[in-house]
Design a protein that fits this description.
- The structure is a single chain.
- The chain is of the alpha/beta class.
- The protein folds into two domains: 108 residues, Rossmann fold (3-Layer(aba) Sandwich); 104 residues, 3-Layer(aba) Sandwich (Rossmann fold).
- The chain contains nine helices and eight strands.
- The strands form two sheets. It has a four-stranded parallel sheet with strand order 2-1-3-4, sandwiched between helices. A four-stranded parallel sheet has the order 6-5-7-8, sandwiched between helices.
- The longest helix has 17 residues.
- It is globular.
């Protein structure tokens, strides 16, 4: 059976468990199987450009070590660290959750909004949106003001996500919302129910694309 490896580039196991739970609806008889792993060399949360740059080397080693065992790889961090380096290192499909989450959002609404964890994450994300060439489709990006390790506090996190989601919808004109951190995975369905517009969990979006790539035997260039 083909297997897909989903890599959490931070070292917080609770985030990996949330990613694994988010992948559950995409597991089906006949596969591909979906395995989720934690990059032990990573920081507790990827919250700066230095964090992004620092995990590229360890991820390259991991992908090279696992290449024979997996048909595709997913980088489960909203900064897509090392995405293009990893694509150079393997002919297997490599998908980043930010790229896939944004591209999925573009099929669900005209303007997408992003819920970030921290304000300092936003300039990094905006550079990426610009590089993807979709800045004119971005309604806005707002932070919940919580670090990655704080996202497991459900009472604090969900309330802030609802507030930010409604602001993106009502003030910025977003008609689809992307959750800008893999650590938010568990909140997708309740958030969508609360704000009444489609909510994209980017790891689900990337894994869904990876399944299609594996099934159709598509590879990247």
């Amino acid at each position: 059976m083909d297997r897909i490896l989903v890599i959490n580039p931070n070292s917080t196991e609770a985030v990996t468990r949330g990613i694994d739970e988010a992948c559950a609806p995409l597991r089906m008889p006949g596969g591909p199987a979906i395995d989720c792993v934690t990059l032990k060399e990573g920081p507790p949360g990827i919250e700066s450009q230095q964090h992004v740059d620092g995990v590229v080397g360890p991820m390259l080693k991991l992908v090279r070590r696992k290449e024979k065992d997996y048909a595709a790889f997913v980088v489960a961090c909203y900064s897509d660290p090392g995405l293009h380096s990893l694509r150079e290192a393997t002919r297997k499909p490599v998908l980043g959750i930010s790229e896939c989450g944004i591209l999925t959002a573009l099929t669900l609404g005209q303007k997408f909004g992003v819920i970030a964890i921290l304000r300092q994450s936003i300039p990094r994300h905006l550079r990426y949106v610009g590089a993807l060439g979709v800045a004119e489709r971005l309604a806005g990006e707002l932070p919940v003001g919580l670090g990655v390790t704080e996202l497991s506090n459900e009472k604090k996190t969900f309330g802030r996500m609802v507030k930010v989601g409604k602001a993106l919808r009502d003030t910025h004109g977003a008609n689809v919302v992307v959750m800008g951190c893999a650590g938010m995975a568990r909140y997708r369905k309740p958030l969508q129910d609360e704000i009444g517009v489609p909510v994209v969990e980017p790891t689900q979006a990337a894994v869904a694309m990876a399944i299609g790539r594996v099934r159709l035997n598509w590879t990247g260039s």
